[in-house]
Amino acid sequence: MLHRLRANRPLVHCITNEVVQEFTANVLLAAGASPAMVVGEGEAEYFAGIASALSVNVGTPYEARIETMKKAIRGALAAGKPWVLDPVAAGGIPWRDKVIFELLEMQPTAVRGNASEIRFLAGVGTGGKGVDSLDDSSSAIEAAKTLARKYKTFVVVTGLKDYATDGERVLCAVGGSEMMTLVVGTGCSLSALLAAFLGGAERSLEACIACCDYVNYANDTASTRSSGPGSFHFQYLDALYQIRPEDFRK
Amino acid sequence: MLHRLRANRPLVHCITNEVVQEFTANVLLAAGASPAMVVGEGEAEYFAGIASALSVNVGTPYEARIETMKKAIRGALAAGKPWVLDPVAAGGIPWRDKVIFELLEMQPTAVRGNASEIRFLAGVGTGGKGVDSLDDSSSAIEAAKTLARKYKTFVVVTGLKDYATDGERVLCAVGGSEMMTLVVGTGCSLSALLAAFLGGAERSLEACIACCDYVNYANDTASTRSSGPGSFHFQYLDALYQIRPEDFRK
Amino acid sequence: MLHRLRANRPLVHCITNEVVQEFTANVLLAAGASPAMVVGEGEAEYFAGIASALSVNVGTPYEARIETMKKAIRGALAAGKPWVLDPVAAGGIPWRDKVIFELLEMQPTAVRGNASEIRFLAGVGTGGKGVDSLDDSSSAIEAAKTLARKYKTFVVVTGLKDYATDGERVLCAVGGSEMMTLVVGTGCSLSALLAAFLGGAERSLEACIACCDYVNYANDTASTRSSGPGSFHFQYLDALYQIRPEDFRK
């Protein structure tokens, strides 16, 4: 999957939150994809049609930007391109939850969240505080399957273990470190990377979990080389760049 | 104070400038707080009520965002939560000064600025060029006391020496390096960290100066490990993470 | 030129894209300039008049921000200050192209782009995919000269070789590495640095190519010290800070 992503160098259209735009772009570049943060009212719908995939993240939504997200989603759907929804902090703020459910109705190819977000969206939890998952990811497996079936989408729950499901099958990836939770944007950029895998490698459940495996590998590599979140930040980007497909054979 | 902050892991609502959002979030995470950059028209007031503290920074103000700041401030005040004002470049641009004085009337728990900003707000200076302080911080002690008494707020002046005052007492912290002025957001993130101390440790003058001490310690540590502003940037985040309360006994 | 820039410490007003604001500010600080990202409707025109130079980048344009760009440009022109246009992704999206041509009519002091952008603006190419240049920079020399003559502006084409022209003379700088293309904002921040050289050193073709030389030097230095785009990011900032004017004599 990683080999195919790099060969295709997918152009990933990101409409993400204000906080993590630079980091998300750098994660995509380090992985071998090509980021484009197109947010203009007049160009988002057009551009989503020519990009390889779209990633929508509601970390800092406001009305004008939400309209642009919807335009871009319509552009992606019309062109048959995959799009990923990152429902940041679902369950935490009623106004935002309404936005998230509206986007969820627009046929995302995949939804990526932590356990509390996924549980809330599936109707079996109360949501979390900020972007930190309060629940173990395995606690959200059934919720993820329910959500995937209801919206006919892939659902990816990340945490100490990551799960990807299409509503029937469940694939699991293991890895990751606490350090990742101390750098803003690691989860958000994973969602953008998921769009890169779906648009640049393959539109499949296997591509979803391959993305998680790749991120976990980079995460583990960076953790052992870091003495804090500052050094983790650059080591993580270096690791994403250095990891080669053949490294996974080990 | 640092021990208490980490035990409470305060949720800090930040409405800050476009330039330093990622760095501010990473500073809060490295210190042990939980950042949330909530800026939506429909959620800022609600969220300020459930967060532990609010930090407002006017580094890149524009009308829609200023309205959101005011909503969030009303939410914080209604819930009795502390909020911090960072009056970036006060005295530099008349339009912005008007905005700053409007926010200053909204009962901030603390105001954090450099000497030229604080002197201007107290009516004894002409303000500065950009975000660089043109004055020695000690030159602003009397201005800080005046400002604190007038608005019944803590005032923190940072520079080579830092001063915190409630209008009567003045506490001082020493430390810091020139390198800090070569990385954007060190001052802005200090204001967010001040909100974290006020909301997560204690609402007191002692908490204000503890925040400065902690930042100075991290700054000094990072300076000795850096060969330029790029390496300072990540060393500073590592230092904030590594410093333990017991390190201050030395 | 570098000596003069640092002696004058120019205040560079940047209205740039959402993705690279922090990096652009840090590049300017590391080089010895003073960044100010002033984007308020009520302050952009005023501030452009008091800054040393203005840098406008259309990486993430939307209507409100485009209006602010135009206000700032009018402020810079009225005060006789230089301004630089970075036409990100020109030729890629019709809506954006219209915006770029409107800005191009407002008498930029310099235009900085990659080969495909410059070729498109000169009417001899079809533009590129995202921000990556698809053409060798030397392929755009004639286009750059045409563009410079038509709009009476300096044109700087960057790539593996960089060219600066006023429509008659062409100066060349050599250097740079592939790593630079894997960190978002290296090109965008080069445009801001170009504004710093034009406003803080000299308004000349020589200042344009001096800026490219300086960036290439930092780029080469950082490349040899990096093991990936994460470490390149901070090494690049360190190198910009460490390079002294006398180093160019070697």
Summarize the structure in words.
The structure is a homotrimer of 250-residue chains. With 250 residues, chain A is α/β, with parallel strands linked by helices. Chain A has a single domain, classed as Ribokinase (UDP-N-acetylmuramoyl-L-alanine:D-glutamate ligase, 3-Layer(aba) Sandwich). Chain A has 10 helices and 8 strands. Chain A has helices spanning 2-8, 21-31, 44-50, 63-78, 94-104, 115-121, 141-151, 186-200, 205-224, 229-242, and strands spanning 11-15, 34-36, 53-57, 83-86, 110-114, 154-158, 161-165, 170-174. The first copy, chain A, has an 8-stranded mixed β-sheet, sandwiched between helices. In chain A, a hairpin with a 2-residue loop joins strand 6 and strand 7 (161-165). In chain A, helix 1 crosses helix 8 and helix 2 (21-31) packs across helix 8. The longest helix of chain A has 20 residues, at 205-224. Chain A binds chain B through residues 17-20, 22-23, 59-63, 89, 93-96, 129-132, 181-185, 226-231, 233-234, and chain B through 11, 18, 21-22, 25-26, 29-30, 34-43, 46-47, 64, 68, 233-242. Chains A, B, C: Its EC number is 2.7.1.50. Chains A, B, C: Substrate binds at residues 37, 185. Chains A, B, C: ATP binds at residues 112, 158. Chains A, B, C: It holds the Pfam family HK. Chains A, B, C: Belongs to the Thz kinase family.
